[in-house]
Amino acid sequence: MARGVNKVILIGNVGGDPETRYLPNGNAVTNITLATTDSWKDKQTGQLQERTEWHRVVLFGKVAEIAGEYLRKGSQCYIEGRLQTREWEKDGVKRYTTEVVVDMNGSMQLLGGRGGSSDDAPRQPRPQREPQQQAPRAQAQPQQRPAAQQPAPDYDSFDDDIPF
Amino acid sequence: MARGVNKVILIGNVGGDPETRYLPNGNAVTNITLATTDSWKDKQTGQLQERTEWHRVVLFGKVAEIAGEYLRKGSQCYIEGRLQTREWEKDGVKRYTTEVVVDMNGSMQLLGGRGGSSDDAPRQPRPQREPQQQAPRAQAQPQQRPAAQQPAPDYDSFDDDIPF
Amino acid sequence: MARGVNKVILIGNVGGDPETRYLPNGNAVTNITLATTDSWKDKQTGQLQERTEWHRVVLFGKVAEIAGEYLRKGSQCYIEGRLQTREWEKDGVKRYTTEVVVDMNGSMQLLGGRGGSSDDAPRQPRPQREPQQQAPRAQAQPQQRPAAQQPAPDYDSFDDDIPF
Amino acid sequence: MARGVNKVILIGNVGGDPETRYLPNGNAVTNITLATTDSWKDKQTGQLQERTEWHRVVLFGKVAEIAGEYLRKGSQCYIEGRLQTREWEKDGVKRYTTEVVVDMNGSMQLLGGRGGSSDDAPRQPRPQREPQQQAPRAQAQPQQRPAAQQPAPDYDSFDDDIPF
DNA sequence: TTTT
DNA sequence: TTTT
Hints:
Largest interface: C-D, 39 and 39 residues
Order of helices and strands of chain A: EEEEEHEEEH
Radius of gyration of chain A: 17 Å
Helix content of chain A: under 10%
Shape of chain A: globular
Oligomer: homotetramer
Structural class of chain A: mainly beta
Strand content of chain A: 35-45%
Number of helices of chain A: 2
């Protein structure tokens, strides 16, 4: 049920503790930023170069819950998802943000032994709050989540739907 | 020589005839847009849904030349590259464009029998113009290439370097 | 629900018309062989070298049915699956066969315009035989479902044995 | 320079300390076995199932040296390579072994913090012996390397070439 | 802007 | 056994 292939495979380190929210239908959504670093030898100078790329990753459903529980700032993880660009507006100007979407067709895996540098016990699932507490269906003050790299609007201001 | 994996695999159809330009150092750069289409059955309504995603793909070097010669509007092709987001400015506002970069570490392949719907004979390499004509090292009037999907500045306004 | 990643991505041409069989539980199983060809320039002689690799691909379920209907000898297709080695015995000697398994976690896509060189009208689904004929749901001796996934002897008691 | 795609992506744990040998031309060859584990819920019984797959991985060149230095039994690593089946003979009977080949077009990466359970200090490169010592061009007693999973002959009995 |  |  598809024409075409749209696949992204990443291994990198998580830029900050993930924040999981819940859609009105109860589905979890977790946003993370992932850093991948390339290094190569400059052909001219022969010097070792390095470049870090930051990726916006959005996880949905079961994998979003697992990400929210197990990933921490610094965690190394594997991501398999698809590229998706969504449009948003700011000050009447259209902007575009490209994300790596991970849903039930994708995959996420925590790698390595210790999972990052957060205060929470690493590699141990966080105490799972009650979903209701965790994701109030009606959110009075949607707390702002600091957008990484690309100043894009977050999924916090939704009412019932997500703009993509 | 890398920490992390940053890999994109696409199969889709090219949105328009590719345009190949040459960097001052003689390296070819080809921009294409690639459409990948997903379809799935809506869980609620049971109806068949469809969504087309447009990807900005930038090819460098040898693979850029091959893309410029063989790809046409409508061509189905396989792309293996890496994700890269570059920053640019317009009216004093920072914007970001995410592209799939294909260089010597990536790969491009024309798929299927007939290569697209262009006027040129498909699957036949285009008459190769002289590189000098094609890519004057000193370009008085860098012709504008219409940006696809995301209104981003092109690689035409470079002096010697590309902003990534 | 996994530790580790086991992923195979192939684009190649089908070596012969696929043959679809049905397991006692009604699930379809299609076997194909897929040829991928590499070419490279020999460093010593500078000559163009070529090597064709043949892959055994086993598809299960829905994707097996689609493969059986649409693929033909010569069809170019995309395969996403996982590596699996199964053990079997011949003349008291253990042998091993490695296959690329495509199930609901994998994917298959017919590529290009014309689908191969078979006599059947290409790209048109084959006349679908009645499932009952094809796969009698009620089988006197439902041999134990040769678990697709686990190290099973073979996928049914076919006579033609497999040459690798 | 290719028709077709032949790509394998694995993340798993190394089954034993790697053994690196050197070809007469000085190129390194490292063999490892890699375990990937899948788990899934059985549809009938609802029980959690698990299956471990062992992969034979052969690395060549620079990446073979890095693998030999940094990988240890238990190390978690990422492998990107291609599928290759080679034929060999035993007691006049042809057999086939499928391997994942990693060369300069592929990639290998050590994952996680501590790299395995070997006695050598993990994550620290092994003391690098002198290449000459390491890889005598004429090897009087090619040490036998225990073949994993598939009882295939090793690359030890080569004179000048490798049988694939 | 592509394709089926 | 495929394909260009």
